[in-house]
């Protein structure tokens, strides 16, 4: 369904299990950034009522996920660490087109968002199927389903608001680009790392 070029090696979960506090901290900040991204889409596209309505739903869900991760951190006697840079997301950001019309830029921002959600969904699936901690396995299974919904929402809006963009062609470019950079990741205990 996601069409990603490269699947995450399940052995990545061994790295994650070596430092649960780090993956949970990184995950918490990923949720915060996802909520901020949805709010930014509202801020810059306030005239698009349907988009605003759905982005507010996503922002709320992402904040709920942040709360859930924070609750897990506390329950496990761990500490929410400082915000981490997400090098994967920063590399994706560089691929985003910054020229063209406002609608063209919106379309690419939505595809950028869909790509992050797609990879997060895939990573959560790998975690849910391979992590030994049963509570975390269920947690990541539930979140995988939510991320898949966000992925399809962003992709759907990209198709809806595209003016001069062949969305399917551009999405294939995003998939190719992501496939070329993801080979550098999967070696650390972070959601995208």
Automatic annotation (TrEMBL):
Pfam families listed in its UniProt record: MiaE
Residue ranges of the TM segments: none
PANTHER family in the record: TRNA 2-(METHYLSULFANYL)-N(6)-ISOPENTENYLADENOSINE(37) HYDROXYLASE, TRNA-(MS[2]IO[6]A)-HYDROXYLASE
Protein name: tRNA 2-methylthio-N6-isopentenyl adenosine(37) hydroxylase MiaE
UniProt source species: Flavobacterium frigidimaris
């Amino acid at each position: 369904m996601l069409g990603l070029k490269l699947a995450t090696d399940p052995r990545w979960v061994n790295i994650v299990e070596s430092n649960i506090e780090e993956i949970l901290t990184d995950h918490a900040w990923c949720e915060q950034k996802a909520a901020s991204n949805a709010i930014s889409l509202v801020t810059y596209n306030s005239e698009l009522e349907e988009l605003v309505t759905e982005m507010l739903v996503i922002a709320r869900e992402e904040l709920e996920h942040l709360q859930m991760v924070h609750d897990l951190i506390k329950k496990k006697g761990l500490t929410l660490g400082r915000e981490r840079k997400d090098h994967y997301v920063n590399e994706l950001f560089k691929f985003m087109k910054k020229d063209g019309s406002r609608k063209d830029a919106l379309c690419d921002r939505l595809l950028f968002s869909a790509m992050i959600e797609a990879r997060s969904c895939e990573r959560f699936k790998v975690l849910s199927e391979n992590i030994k901690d049963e509570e975390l396995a269920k947690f990541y299974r539930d979140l995988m389903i939510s991320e898949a919904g966000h992925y399809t929402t962003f992709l759907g809006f990209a198709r809806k608001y595209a003016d001069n963009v062949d969305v399917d062609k551009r999405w294939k470019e995003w998939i190719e680009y992501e496939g070329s950079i993801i080979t550098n990741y999967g070696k650390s205990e972070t959601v995208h790392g």
